[in-house]
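WARN retry 2 of 3 for item q-0093 after timeout on previous attempt; input resubmitted unchanged.
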Amino acid sequence: LPSGRVSSRYVYLKELDARGFVIYSNWLHSRKAQDVQSNPYASLAFWWGNVERQVRVEGKVERLSEEESQAYYDLRARGSRIGAWASEQSEVLPEELGERAVLEKRVREVEDRFEGREDIPVPGFWGGMRVVPETVEFWQGRESRLHDRFRYSRDGENGDWEMKRLSP
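OK item q-0093 returned
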């Protein structure tokens, strides 16, 4: 990242396929977009505390095609599709104009624009990104902090996975 600081957030994982882990977002305004522009790598962490399990994923980020993004976008509720057009995600809403009122005005404008239409196109600034895993680590809690850890790393030449057991 340009600042050299770490950035993290919770995201809504929408898909997992043979190529990787997929989320959707605003790629013009969001903090995620800024992060990915300056560093094309991301990590994901999944935690299941009640069973003492964790999975960490690290890999390169790739943007989904407009067609892939449109396919998911069409499944979203109409209000969510309108919201994607209306929200300048992560941007500060102007206080002097009544913050929330600005957002609600944008929503009304987008609703008017697409009145009577269900075929709302995906905004060019919105879409999916895939984290293509290069490393996946599985962690299982054990007594006396002697946890089991297994790291799978993708071989750069042939794409095969290599597994190593790690110390806790």
